[in-house]
Write a structure and sequence with these properties.
- 3 copies of one chain form a homotrimer.
- Helix content of chain A is 30%, strand content 23%.
- Chain A has 426 residues and is of the alpha/beta class.
- The first copy, chain A, folds into 3 domains: 225 residues, Zn peptidases (Aminopeptidase); 94 residues, Domain of unknown function DUF2172 (Glucose Oxidase, domain 1, 3-Layer(bba) Sandwich), CATH 3.50.30; 77 residues, Orthogonal Bundle (Arc Repressor Mutant, subunit A), CATH 1.10.10.10.
- Chain A has an 8-stranded mixed sheet, with helices on both faces. In chain A, strands 5-4-9-6 form a 4-stranded antiparallel sheet.
- In chain A, strand 11, helix 5 and strand 12 form a beta-alpha-beta unit.
- In chain A, helix 1 crosses helix 9 and helix 11 crosses helix 12.
- The two termini of chain A are 38 Å apart.
- Chains A and B meet through helix 6 of A and helix 10 of B.
- Chains A, B, C: GO terms for molecular function: metal ion binding.
- Chains A, B, C: It comes from Amycolatopsis lurida NRRL 2430.
- Chains A, B, C: Its cofactor is Zn(2+).
Chain lengths: 426, 426, 426
């Protein structure tokens, strides 16, 4: 099956725009529709896990679907309408068909008093309730009287849906890229991340990568927990990972370290981001699914890449996280950053100098400029000397690049030249 | 026996004032009188160690007592008088009853030329001599002629006196609080320390502490050496300790690290003092009895808390270290600081997350707010997530508080809640 | 045989001036003549290693000697003349006797276009070629026409020549001081280094040193590789070393760390240089023969001392590195710095406190001021307390000096006093 390429920023934006209207939650048909569209770009293994399945300390909940929902004021006018924005209904709201005075209704209405024109995003996955989200301005304008309330949702035994996409590498050791797929009409959080991940998968497949890259599209928390529960034996193969979210807002990139703090992925991302505006944060057990990957029992080398970090922008979890908030350039930059990071990760080997006593004579192997006395040693020669000096089995090429200050590509080229001359082995 | 409470700053000041006139030294009745007054507030085990007892590399010296001492000028006027201030006599002066010209007397007179109005504090415990201390101004005004000199002291076989007070805890592991009791009329050094220690013992007893707290009131150097020599087998039980001195001057607190530098007591004191004016000093083998506790053979986790550090104020070891120099507020603050530090120390446990794979579902245990989507995670919830994430047996609750930036009390409360839910064990 | 003393800066300068005109290379009679003059000051073991000898990854090359070389312009005037400066001939030039147009000759001419008045220094040890070095200004003035070119050199089987000088110490553990001897008329690089090394050897011999000091005078790269190949079994005895170069330029001292970065020699040099203008650089695998000593297989604790570092001054490897560039004061300062460094190294022992439980009673051993109460503890007493406290077998006297902030000499004196009193053993 031919897949649609995601080659340009416009392609990324178009994908985000198609996914935006869908009403996603941690289960349900909105997720399935999302994965179907995504499947037009990259092949997906879609997993359906039945309600009631025990996953680690959790249980897969009932499946939630919603057809319609609204609130009518005493005059019969729809003042809150799910069809206008799926943010208007609290996620996992149980069905309701009642008429009640405004005072009673208020207990089910959520607003943002400090951002009175915005609609908040709220959910209640594990406590059966119902509710509507609306602008404080809307609420303030509601007259007293009896309101008709309708939520046409279903909460039944069904499935939790997530998908995997694998880019096979030279080795079966894996790098995870995980995106949450459970947020409804929130563009940066996380449609931008989903789009960037899909484009990244296409680019990785185009170059045969060293590691195997496994992309995970799954609902936050319960999805990661489900995947971890079902893949415990695979985890020994996981060498690194990135939780990708908020990939499109106009802020500069933020890397949040894994719980280990000095995992290889941490060093790679910090290396790639150095020299440009960015932030590096220490791990904290809050945010996206790095919480699960970095729980102490797993403690995987998984960090998180965002633009502005989790909950760090006023549009976060509001109706202002819309298509206007997402920048094509930011998505392209996030994509390029991860492309570069994985290129470093893929080539970051440890070598052993096979001629470690004194310098080997590079000149007789054609690796060294023959005319001595000049002080302008070339980058290529310096890179060879550095690789030889630090290739003691303990230092990686990233170590060499960092200690020498030389470009990573030069260090890799030097290692390959030296390996070609029989002076280095992996 | 009912003990007098030391509840208020006024109580602390009154105790300092009662102790101030007594002529203490490393042995003798001044120490006994001091301990008797102290015993009105906390029960004391008073130990009398005979002269000649070998203690580590040292020998308990003869006991020194003094009834009177003076210098009369050629006109018969007392120009230096022990009864005015016990600082006037060099500690451990041998008896003398002579008449001598001023020129000869000068060799026995000690002044502070740069602080000409102050009387210095001097001792000569281990070299038999005698001497007087006086203001340079006084010395400068002395006429030539013959001076009558009298020191009515005794240096005989007797005892070295020190006292212990124990606040029993849940466990027999001990925390030491050590104060030197050998200085005569010097208020900050160390009557303020003695008073604060006694009040601290009362407060600790009022809350049943986790550790057993052992308070030591003993002469500097020889007292600590004597206690260490007699308690070598107990030292394995000593988890931490504080040498408390200069607890009442107006300076901000100074914590001097143990020789280890990263002992638990070091981390606790630095944590408690953070965010307010204070100093932290590295260990040095000079100062108070931390010198002995931190000698390389013992190397105990014992730091030192003072206000202005040892020898760091111009009043140090002079007649200006008097009752006016000691601030009630400073004593109260020192008391509060140690109370807080020991409260942290007592609760600074290491836990193990019993559900370490992924996050446990806090919501179903009533530990987590059910409404999702909001970004204002509460302190209590963050504390639970942090405790779960770091409870791998390696991190203590203090580690959690420091890494998370959350209040220690919140972290402890989270640990207790999680333990109550069966998610954590100690 | 009596050796000429190098007592004064004038002696150092005179030695540099005598060595300056000689045409040194990595082999040949210029090196031998250099060592002969050096031998007037310190006895040398001169080693001759035959051409073709395998040394580590390298082979000792043919021996190069040169009698004369010149270029005559179309009018028969010598425009480049080896007899004016040996820098005019590319080192290891094969013999040539040809006439050729300027256009063809240009391929064999080396200049420094950005320093048009200076003659560069160039070599081609391992690729047979020939060439001349000249000022860009000279080149620009050459008329077109046919040039007569003559290099009267020989490249034959012969020997590589290097020399050793040993100052025996109390122990056979060795400290290396290595100087390259292969540069022709370049004064700072490395005649100043050779002169300073010779004077240092004389001074070390005058005080019986603790370590055995081995001075190596050998051609760069191939010389160090030859020595290492022939002394592999000795290397276990090498406790430290310094590669000494550029010892006379007016810059302040630069210490380049060994590959280990925290070898004892690194700590000693940083200690000695602290508090005066200087630079400390991390190891890099480029520069002088520290490249070989610090190759990963050997990884010796060998750093490098220069004034302005390798290639760090515009006169580097040009005719401007002449006698005027070398400062007598700088050579004296380099000599003094190394003298002090080796004095610290020689005395930097680890001791064990034989009375580690509490402080030993210094007073009864006459080591402590008997009058107590004063706050101005003397340096000698503080040094004794520090040495006792840190002499746990893990800390060296340099550690004590650094942690205490006390002068190293005071710390050493304290250790000797304590050892004399039976309180310390090595």
């Amino acid at each position: 099956m031919t897949r649609e390429p995601l080659d340009t920023g416009a392609d990324l934006r178009e994908l985000v725009e198609r996914l935006y209207p869908l009403c996603r939650s941690i289960t349900g048909d909105g997720v399935r529709a999302t994965l179907e569209i995504l499947g037009e770009h990259i092949p997906l293994d879609v997993h359906e896990v039945p309600t009631g399945t025990q996953v680690l300390d959790w249980t897969v909940p009932q499946e939630w679907n919603i057809r319609d929902a609204w609130v009518k004021d005493p005059s019969g006018r729809k003042v809150v309408d799910f069809r206008e924005s799926n943010l208007h209904v609290v996620g996992y709201s149980v069905p309701v068909a009642e008429t009640m005075p405004l005072a009673d209704l208020r207990e089910h209405l959520h607003t943002l008093p400090e951002q009175p024109s915005l609609v908040p995003y709220r959910t209640s996955y594990y406590a059966p309730t119902w509710g509507f989200c609306l602008a404080q301005d809307t609420l303030d304008a509601l007259p007293n009287g009896d309101y008709e309330v309708r939520i046409e949702s279903t909460l039944d035994d069904g499935h939790l849906t997530y998908a995997e996409h694998v880019v096979p590498g030279e080795v079966t050791d894996e790098v995870l890229v995980s995106c949450h797929t459970c947020h409804p009409s929130l563009a940066n959080d996380n449609l931008a991340g989903i789009a960037v991940a899909a484009a990244l998968a296409q680019r990785l497949a185009a170059r045969k990568p060293h590691f195997t890259y496994r992309f995970l599209f799954m609902p936050g928390t319960i999805g990661a927990i489900t995947w971890l529960a079902r893949n415990t034996e695979r985890l020994g193969k996981v060498k690194a990972g990135i939780v990708l979210a908020c990939a499109g807002d106009p802020g500069s990139p933020t890397y949040k370290r894994s719980r280990r703090g000095d995992a290889e992925i941490d060093r790679v991302l910090e290396f790639v981001l150095a020299g440009r505006p960015h932030k590096v944060l220490d791990f904290s057990p809050y945010g996206y699914d790095e919480r699960q990957f970095c729980s102490p029992g797993f403690n995987l080398g998984v960090g998180s890449l965002t633009r502005t970090p989790y909950a760090g922008y006023p549009e976060y979890h509001t109706s202002a996280d819309n298509l206007d908030f997402v920048s094509t350039e930011a998505m392209e930059d996030t994509l390029a950053t991860l492309g570069e990071a994985f290129s470093v990760l893929d080539r970051n080997r440890r070598y052993v100098n096979l001629s470690p006593y004194g310098e080997p004579q590079l000149g007789k192997r054609g690796l060294y400029d023959s005319l001595g006395g000049r002080s302008d040693a070339k980058t290529a020669q310096m890179a060879m000397l550095w690789v030889l000096n630090l290739s003691d089995g303990e230092h990686s090429l990233l170590d060499v690049a960092q200690r020498s200050g030389l470009p990573f590509d030069s260090v890799v080229a030097a290692a390959h030249a030296l390996q070609g001359a029989g002076l280095l082995k992996e």
